[in-house]
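Late entry, evening session. Most of the bench is empty. Finally got around to the prediction I had been postponing all week. Sequence below, unchanged from the version circulated by S.P.
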Amino acid sequence: TRPRLDNHLSSSSSMSTSSTSSSSSQSSQSSTTTADNEIDNSTIEGATLTLQNYDASQQKFVQTDGSQGLGGGLSALHHIQSLSTTERTALQTAIVTLVTRAHAERALDSSKGRIM
């Protein structure tokens, strides 16, 4: 069965404390502005984890669904439709969080703030 996305949201806060060294290196690389401070690194890590878990869940779903449609697009649609309201809200929040941070970074330096 597929992993639940909402379960990973609560574990992301514990992940941020265990990866202090990586977040401190990220902190030293980013400039501090009001916009950057509004979305701290632990929030970014949590949003990233949510999207990574969704990606893994979708890949697994597409495989078990038989990769229907061109490039598995129909299976991907079935996957998003199968998510609970909580899971969809978590995805939406994660995307908005990362886009907001990227916009703030691009406002300071147009070579930064890319979302991959």
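Two things to note before I forget:
The mean pLDDT is 73.
The first helix runs from residue 5 to 18.
Will write this up properly tomorrow.
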